[in-house]
Design goal:
The structure holds two protein chains of two kinds. Chain A is built from 17 helices and eleven strands. Chain A is α/β, with parallel strands linked by helices. The radius of gyration of chain B is 24 Å and the shape is globular. The chains are: A alpha/beta, B alpha+beta.
């Protein structure tokens, strides 16, 4: 079977509010791809994978059809995939499957989200409609509340502190100031922030402050994926997909204390449990960790032949809408053992100059989070990283990991209800 | 309809329907006005934007759904009646609250679960302290969102815990109470801590006194916001917590 590579991309800079509409934003991102890839004749694109999260943010169903015709790629096969925050990475994985299986050789993935057409509280409410609307939704916590409760549980079991969450928030902002496409830089300029600044930011859902939470963004991104036969025609530095994994967990996080499908599957993780807290029927992942990520990363590492991810990977872009999620994902992606996530922060492993820098782009809390485009933006960032193109693209070499060869990306939706992991290689 | 297969057993909505008819008549999706704005445009990095003028139109969208709560209607009718129900799988004996009428344990092959009445007691499995929320919940701020494991069940139920936000912890014992006016939703119930408990020294909120100070500082901002926006005074909120504890 053929190998599959990302061979190019383009973006429409995400920000809190953009006044071009989605189709125009996607067209601008597509135009950037075409400028960077003169060999690409649009007529040669065989399939268009379209992806956005929410219909009710823009009063428009089937926006994928609007987009596909606007950029003149109708007549081609194409459809939308949607799965909350997992949406854009699912689109990449879907394109991978379609090429890998031999159906197509050249696929354009387009993703976007326009999230500021209603006020902030309503945006939160609309997003929360991805939670169980008969249950979790009805008590007013919404995703800030759900994720904060998950982090409280993890913090209680494994002892990270508010400072640890602050270190992650500071790290991601101080990376984002070197990313000229980041929303943090658009809103706050290029100055560094400190842990003191973090503690002066307001608490929105304890243990989270505003800085710990994902941004609300409008923006777009496109990626070009090709089979081995075509990859080098379009790119001097194709980024190969070496491993792909998918995983799921329960819709309602509260049900994960009696999670029969996970019970006994990861016995070592079940053992790492403090004795002062009552043990639920299924101790892993329960409400503290992310089972989908454990499942997905295990599959992806197996395919990519990776046994020690911290040693083998050069950087990682995580889907961390909240900073506690980033810390928990270190564990579930097997960068460390369960309960040891805090050590990677304290020892600097995940910092810019650490052994495995995470969220160099700034991630969802400092780069941007236009849901349907987020993992595409992070993938494009990795394509530029593995191709050594960051200095040229950003006009700043700070974020370039020299000689970067392998990278991981993970995406997910809901409270870790569904997600994936992809391993990329130069 | 040729045959009347569905009959209304109880009606607690007809009066409200009139109000929503009026709302719909105001015109969903029709343009109410516009603004012209001058704003950054173009795809490029910061510092390389163009500027352009855009017309922004305003159009509403509000609808009233009718949604069956399915076979777990029993649970929500129980709330109206002042009772708390869960389900129990006859095969693996898992007790679910939130209830599921089919067991999700693969060994049980989607067995139909039985209804059981639950005691009005439980424990806080985990929680978050909300200092911001969507419009419909602003007047509840600040509030604790608790995932409460009802005694005898194996899952956890998301409900509000009515208590001063600095006085909640993992493992805290709570009683379930019913609000006076009930509509058949989770907001019909809330939890209050069983009196006489103290946070354990390992409580993640309490183990470092800095956490409480930090939280109190930002709670003050919420009180100021509530007074300014709704005229709700800090004392009123504290009285609400005291009343709930009784």
């Amino acid at each position: 079977m053929t190998r599959v590579a990302v061979v190019g991309g383009g973006l429409f800079r995400p920000d809190r509010v953009r006044y071009e509409v989605a189709e125009e934003g996607v067209a601008e991102a597509y135009r950037m791809l075409l400028e960077d890839t003169p060999e690409l004749d649009p007529r040669d694109i065989e399939f268009v994978q379209l992806t956005y999260f929410s219909d009710h943010l823009n009063q428009q169903l089937c926006m994928a059809w609007v987009i596909q015709d606007y950029i003149g790629l109708h007549r081609k096969p194409g459809y939308r995939v949607e799965a909350g925050g997992s949406t854009p990475l699912d689109a990449v994985i879907n394109a991978y499957y379609l090429i890998k299986s031999g159906y197509y050789d050249l696929i354009l993935v387009t993703g976007w989200e326009w999230m500021s057409e209603v006020d902030t509280a309503t945006t939160n409410e609309f997003i929360a409609a991805a939670s169980d609307t008969d249950w979790d939704f009805t008590v007013g916590g919404y995703y800030n509340g759900y994720y904060a409760a998950l982090e409280t549980r993890h913090m209680q079991l494994y002892g990270e502190t508010i400072e640890d969450l602050g270190r992650i928030a500071v790290k991601n902002r101080n990376n984002a100031v070197h990313n000229p496409y980041s929303q943090w830089r658009s809103e706050h300029g290029t100055g560094y922030v400190t842990l003191d600044d973090y503690f002066n930011d307001r608490i929105v859902a304890w243990p989270y402050r505003r800085w710990n939470c994902a941004l609300i963004s409008e923006g777009a991104c496109v990626l070009l994926l090709a089979s081995e036969k075509l990859a080098r025609k379009y790119s001097d530095s194709p980024m190969w997909i070496e491993g792909v994994g998918l995983g799921t967990d329960s819709m309602r996080p509260g049900d994960r204390t009696a999670n029969w499908v996970y019970k006994g599957v990861f016995p070592n993780d079940e053992k790492v449990y403090p004795d002062f807290v009552e043990k639920p029927l299924s101790p892993y992942p329960e409400m503290a960790n992310f089972g989908f990520a454990r499942e997905a990363s295990s599959q992806a590492y197996r395919q990519a032949g990776i046994e020690n991810p911290v040693k083998r990977l050069d950087l990682a872009e995580l889907f961390a809408p909240y900073d506690g999620v980033e810390l928990c994902l270190y564990e579930d992606l097997q960068f460390c053992g369960r309960g040891e996530g805090k050590n990677l922060v304290r020892e600097g492993v995940v910092m810019r100059d650490g052994e495995l820098p995470c969220q160099l782009s700034g991630g969802l809390t400092a780069f941007a989070h236009p849901v349907g485009a987020t993992s595409l933006l992070q993938t494009l960032f990795l394509y530029w990283e593995l191709g050594g193109m960051i200095p040229e693209k950003f006009g700043d070499k700070t974020l370039q990991v020299s000689g970067a060869e392998k990278a991981l990306i993970t995406g997910h939706g809901g409270t870790g209800c569904q997600g994936g992991v992809v391993i990329y290689s130069r | 309809m040729a045959e009347k297969k569905v009959e209304i057993v109880e009606d607690k909505i007809s009066d409200v329907l009139k109000e929503w008819e009026e709302y719909a008549r105001k015109g969903n999706w029709t343009v109410k006005g516009y603004r012209i704005v001058r704003a950054p445009a173009g795809p490029g990095k910061l510092g390389e934007e163009e500027k352009d003028e855009f017309m922004v139109v305003y159009r509403p969208h509000g609808v009233l759904y009718h949604h069956s709560l399915g076979k777990v209607s029993r649970f929500f009718r129980g709330l109206v009646e002042g009772k708390l129900y869960g389900t129990r799988c006859p095969k693996c004996e898992t007790v679910y609250c939130p209830p599921r009428v089919h067991c999700w344990n693969p060994d049980c092959r989607a067995a139909r679960a039985e209804w059981v009445e639950l005691p009005l007691r439980g424990k806080v499995h985990t929680f978050s302290i909300m200092l911001f929320s969507a419009d419909a919940f602003l007047e509840h701020l600040p509030f604790v969102l608790g995932y409460v494991q009802i005694e005898g069940t194996h899952t956890t139920l998301p409900i509000q815990v009515i208590t001063p936000p600095t006085e909640v912890w993992v493992g805290q014992e709570v009683e379930i109470r019913f609000r006076e006016e009930r509509k058949g939703e989770l907001m019909d119930i809330y939890a209050v801590p069983v009196p006489g408990q103290k946070p354990p020294e390992w409580s993640c909120l309490h183990r470092d006194p800095k956490n409480i100070k930090d939280l109190e500082r930002y709670l003050e901002d919420v009180y100021k916001f509530l007074e300014k926006r709704f005229g709700i005074k800090k004392e009123d909120i504290q009285k609400k917590w005291e009343a709930a504890a009784k």
